[in-house]
Specification:
Order of helices and strands: HHHHH
CATH architecture: Up-down Bundle
Radius of gyration: 23 Å
Number of domains: 1
Number of helices: 5
CATH class: Mainly Alpha
Structural class: mainly alpha
CATH superfamily: Fumarate reductase/succinate dehydrogenase, transmembrane subunit
Distance between the termini: 77 Å
Largest sheet: none
Shape: elongated
């Protein structure tokens, strides 16, 4: 009887702490975002391949794809892809530094996370400033 009671008591309590105990920290959020941007890069790379195939197919199809990509929604998707690419790359650099055994101080971890987020946003804004400027939009 005592063994069955112990099994029920063990089953009633959680196996590990979850969101009720842990509040999101920047390094936790950046880990999740790193995984999401990695998945988003698959879709963006398919769009890039579509554009390259259109360029190889001929001027008419290339114009069609360029018109879709040049629409404001297409530009927003491309801007998101740009951000995901930069953010994921900077996250990879951050993980590489950790793999080398550096930057495990909590202040350094948080600083690297915030810096990679800020750099990805500034880098994306800079690239799109140049793109939109070249297109004569701004």
């Amino acid at each position: 009887m005592a063994e069955a009671t112990q099994r029920r008591a063990a089953a009633a309590r959680p196996l590990s702490p979850h969101l009720q105990i842990y509040s999101p920290k920047i390094n936790m959020v950046m880990s999740i975002v790193h995984r999401i941007t990695g998945a988003a890069l698959y879709v963006g790379t398919l769009l890039l391949a579509w554009w390259l195939i259109a360029a190889a197919t001929g001027p008419a199809y290339y114009a069609f794809v360029s018109q879709i990509m040049g629409h404001p929604i297409g530009l927003a998707i491309l801007a998101g892809y740009t951000w995901a690419l930069i953010h994921h790359a900077l996250g990879g650099v951050r993980h590489f530094v950790w793999d080398l055994g550096y930057g495990f101080n909590l202040f350094t971890v948080d600083a690297m996370c915030w810096l990679s987020l800020l750099a990805s946003l500034v880098g994306t804004a800079g690239i799109w400033y140049l793109v939109l400027g070249a297109r004569g939009i701004i």
